[in-house]
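Minutes, project check-in
Item: structure for the 130-residue chain
Input as provided by the requester:
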Amino acid sequence: MVRLAGCSAIAEIIHCGGGKVDREIARDAADIVKLSSPRSLPPVLDRLRGQGYRCVGLEQTTNSQLLYNYQFVRQTALVIGSEREGLSQEILDRLDDVVEIPVYGQPASYNVVTAATMAVYEYCRQFPEG
């Protein structure tokens, strides 16, 4: 995830929960992407929204929009859930929008890093100047 952020000029990853950075995989991104680990996500979403970010979740819900139809705004905070549980209802209720990536076979969802990569690619495609 850190390498994806570095390659996509994402300045910061905010993550709740455990995890570590493998510097061999992250390469130079480990030195340029800021990592922060707050205890709770809701206050972070409130702060980001107060700074003008649109909080967009990546999750399959009854009201999510298809990723390839979604128009990102420049100041977007992409919110990604955990591998097994996804985003909780508490977090979904705090988001401005929710997008999903269509799945055409089995299993019925992509893993977190694959889905994040597709969403970040779509954002970058919409803002090719960086």
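Outcome recorded: The chain has two domains: 1-39, 40-130.
No further action items on this chain.
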